[in-house]
Amino acid sequence: KAGVTQTPRYLIKTRGQQVTLSCSPISGHRSVSWYQQTPGQGLQFLFEYFSETQRNKGNFPGRFSGRQFSNSRSEMNVSTLELGDSALYLCASSLGRGAQETQYFGPGTRLLVL
Amino acid sequence: AQSVTQLGSHVSVSEGALVLLRCNYSSSVPPYLFWYVQYPNQGLQLLLKYTTGATLVKGINGFEAEFKKSETSFHLTKPSAHMSDAAEYFCAVRVSGGYNKLIFGAGTRLAVHP
Fold first, then answer.
1. Which of A13, A73, B17, B91 is deepest in the core (most CB within 10 A)?
2. Residue-wise pLDDT tens digits, B49-101
3. Cβ-based neighbour number of residue B42 at 10 Å
4. Taking CB atoms and an 8 Å cutoff, what residues of chain A touch B107?
5. How remote is the C-alpha of A92 from its chain's centroid?
6. Residue B29 — pLDDT band, cuts 50, 70, 90?
């Protein structure tokens, strides 16, 4: 089975721009979660989507948004980029059936905001 | 609120020596606990997880961890370090009622020297 894929892998943007990142989960997985990883704040949960609905959200400003499509692929969008948004953005997928299950992470998208 | 503390941001061991990475959690309910490893420029890979049952959990690459409720600990060990174990290791707890939201520790960077 193919793993979680994320596109693009690297991205450079300037302040004020917006960006869209994409995540394709493992086939059959219906839950997609997004995390931000920075040297200062570590790994922080952004949000989770399950069956096209956001069912959990972290403590991030409204500039961070996401969606999930009927094929479980997910996108996250960051508007009005700030320098502090520079980070590795990771998505993870799982079946979405219970708390015991494993989340499988993609390789991440590294975003640099100049 | 649930939280995870990893003692020691950097650990250095000799090849062949014991690896011990410490993780303490805070949870008001029985937790689900995970250890992930991250190699440079890659996503997170699950090493092992504790959900219920046996408190000694064996994972991939010779790693294991023991869940000790009385000590609220979930330390990761490997009897003999290999150069390829050099990476960053993250302990995480699944938030109860939070579906797939993981709370991560700050991470421990493991260096293995000859």
1. B91
2. 998 888 899 999 999 999 999 999 999 999 999 999 999 999 999 876 667 78
3. 14
4. 42-43
5. 8
6. confident
